[in-house]
Write a structure and sequence with these properties.
Number of domains of chain A: 2
Shape of chain A: globular
Structural class of chain A: alpha/beta
Distance between the termini of chain A: 18 Å
Oligomer: homodimer
Radius of gyration of chain A: 20 Å
CATH superfamily of the largest domain in chain A: NAD(P)-binding Rossmann-like Domain
């Protein structure tokens, strides 16, 4: 389909109102229009799969670290898709690419925004789950490079049943660490134990997190990998041992009130324990994406990594998927099949 | 004076009521009694000088990291003194020792609590200021070991005119860093510029700290050495650059309400900047006190370190000195001449 006179209809999700707190379906609108014809250097991509990440919420504020989405602007999103018209030497029609496709069913953008996926034989959801910038790569650099996890260390992971958390648990286990995963609800905890293979799980909705940490790690934890922030961060800080590393990967509990974040009131535990809290974003490791992707793919191909994901069907359900991420309605990486 | 039948009168400062907020003179009592005769293995020490540290405040709570002082218990304090009766092989009468003498004019305690000062020719105040556990040694390990300060880095120091801060500024300068010191009031800022030799000072009582940091470090800071906590910690976090280190040495602004500490609400800047917040207490480096003391003494003898201190006269004034520490009434290390 390289006939520019016959461009497809594209649906896109735009911002109607800035969410007050967690994002709701009613904060978004869907607009249908004919996809834009690519100019020289651009490609038209048919979007296959989009990942739902907490970072998207931060762009819905008026001032935002990842850039602010204007009212009526298309919601940013990362994903995979197939090039259907190419006006660039970089790609030919039929290539599977990954990049900032945005929340829409067709995307026209400069080819430079995208990279070709090295393994088009793997379905797009597994691909995003394991090799995505905000999934596998974040988990890899977070636990291996920032956390420097070592054999026999005790690693506590919040949001452990999520896209990043579930991979962090497995990557830590592969290094010989003991892993305790925190998630909300029995179903997620079952997945953690039976599929992800954690040593212990904590259901924060039905168990006392502090008591459970003390039960499974009576001498304290070496690493806390935090995707959540808020109260759980303080509880974890209260349970660190000497030289612990608290890795700040995200703070989904705080993104919906970014201007009045609850800071960790027990941060002085860092001094008592000669411990550190270190943050990162995956972009800091951009030069090493290729190397890490190879290793992750290799582990996956050897059957050593499982990639749980939760798929919502259709671009129309993108707002619902985003809402679910904040209500904890997903086990594994949330994605939209477009 | 090794005549046990003729023991001196000793004054000691005890806790009358647990302070509500910052410690006040009225929270303490002074008791006078005859010094206890040393048993075998003990020494009787005439206290010469005591250092006033913010950690003392933390012991006045019912639950406390450094141990809790009971009501009517003697206030803990570190200092130097002269052995006047020794029932231990470790010391002879006349030896100058350093250790946990407590807030009193004579101390009877196991000799093992003390170490002999290697340089008795230096006056006790300079000695405490430069080689004290909570002064020179804290500054040394904090900025060199935890902070790993490097040439041309920009180092921001809070409480810069205090006992630790003034040494941190100088030690960072000696490594070739650019140093910005934060202190309260023109007088302290003048000391910072004229005596300590910082590159820039910020008077937090009369200047906008955020604006001043941006003025002196438009590209952000590499190291924040924090003795203060609270609002200044958040302002500093808002000004870190990539790979910055925030060193948590203390949080004097928070010690008086230890159960409801204000956590740094901008801690997510750590993730944005791939930065770390690392805490320590000097006790973590105990095995290396000797090596660090030698280096500090050597720098002092070469005239490369100045040790500003503020002396209150007489053990009676120990409560006043402690109160002053929290109202910012001192420039340089606060000490009591006993």
């Amino acid at each position: 389909m390289s006939d520019i006179s016959n461009l497809p209809n594209s649906k896109k999700i735009v911002l109607k109102t800035r969410p007050d707190g967690d994002p709701k379906v009613s904060d978004f609108d869907m607009i249908e229009e004919i996809a834009k014809a690519p100019d020289d250097g651009e490609v038209l991509v048919e979007v296959q799969a989009l990942e739902i990440g907490a970072w998207i919420r931060t762009t819905l504020n008026e001032t935002a670290f990842h850039g602010s989405t204007p009212i009526s602007g298309t919601i940013p999103a990362l994903g995979n898709g197939k090039v259907i018209i190419s006006k660039s030497d970089k790609f030919k029609e039929g290539d599977i690419v990954t990049g900032p496709l945005m929340a829409q069913s067709y995307t026209t953008m400069a080819a430079d925004f995208f990279t070709k996926v090295p393994n088009p034989e793997i379905d797009p959801f597994t691909q995003i789950g394991i090799l995505g910038v905000t999934t596998g790569l974040t988990a890899y650099f977070g636990i291996y490079e920032v956390g420097q996890v070592k054999k026999n260390e005790i690693v506590l992971v919040s949001g452990a049943a999520g896209g990043v958390g579930s991979l962090v648990c497995q990557l830590a286990k592969l290094k010989g660490a003991k892993v305790i995963g925190i998630a909300g609800g029995k179903e997620k905890c079952d997945v953690l134990k039976n599929e992800i293979g954690v040593d212990a799980s904590i259901d924060y909705k039905n168990q006392n997190v502090d008591e459970q940490i003390k039960l499974h790690a009576p001498e304290g934890i070496d690493i806390f990998f935090d995707n959540v922030g808020g109260e759980i961060l303080d509880i974890a800080l209260d349970n660190i041992r000497d030289r612990a590393r608290v890795i700040i990967c995200g703070a989904i509990s705080q993104y919906s009130h970014h201007d009045s974040v609850d800071g960790p009131s027990l941060y002085l535990r860092l001094a008592e324990k000669y411990a550190r809290m270190e943050g990162f974003t995956v972009m800091h490791f951009e030069e090493r994406y290729e190397e890490a992707s190879k290793e992750l793919l290799d582990l996956y191909n050897k059957g050593k990594l499982k990639v749980p994901f939760h798929i919502e069907d259709g671009i129309d359900n993108f707002p619902l998927a985003l809402q679910k991420l904040f209500t904890g309605g997903n086990t594994g990486k949330l994605m939209v099949k477009v």
